[in-house]
Amino acid sequence: MTSTAGVARQSEACSACGGSLDALGHCAKCGAVFGEAYRCPLCGALADVERDSRLYYRCRVCGGPRIPPSPIPISEAEVQRLKAARSEQFKAVAFRVGAGFALASSALSLLVTSLVLVATTPALFAQLAALIACLVPCALALFAFRQARSHSRSFHAALQQAWFLAAARLSASRSGRLTAAELAELLRVDEARAELLLAEVSVQDFVYAESGPERLRVPELAGPSEVSVEAERIDATAGPLKQ
Ligand SMILES: [Zn+2]
Ligand SMILES: [Zn+2]
What we know:
Layout: E1 49-52, E2 56-59, H1 76-120, H2 124-172, H3 180-187, H4 191-211, E3 215-217, H5 219-222, E4 228-230
Antiparallel strand pairs: 1-2, 3-4
The protein binds zinc ion (2 copies).
């Protein structure tokens, strides 16, 4: 392991079990974390990350999306994307719950109305009005489902951008070329995904060199919502990653 500037800290003993801490402040013996690299940008707690099927990695305290800690501190742009991803995820879940509720109430009112209509057989106009009234929550459910899908796409886009920016940050911190295997180890992802992220970084570097530092777009990673990304060049002065 390395001991570099930034969030890395010197090896100390774990105050919980006395085991030794790695450069980032993680105790291999009991799993406790002490280094600032482990501070969650969303909840502010010093907490480890764990794998998650939707978020790749999530905070063990707040459950929000996280990028695994590394010797180079996470950038503000990444934090903003992670916050956006969490907010969009909340909205998507809220709309999905609302849609389910509206759909259920629509079905229930349709059932009750049908029973009442069978029992009372009112005028045709009244029957139609009652049935149309039952369809209002159905329309609301449809609207909510669409909103949920839209927020879900924005969530995915923000999350992909955060990971792309993380790959760009680690790539820029290295004086030589960062390999997929090295990136995979730093970001705790498989090599195929690291390769994909590196490819995106290369494409963006090429576009940046060609078009200048106006605005970069990350179409592949941005997904359908096409969020444009300010060309936030990773500050190379953060210092190269030592091996
Ligand atoms: Zn420990
Ligand atoms: Zn957290």
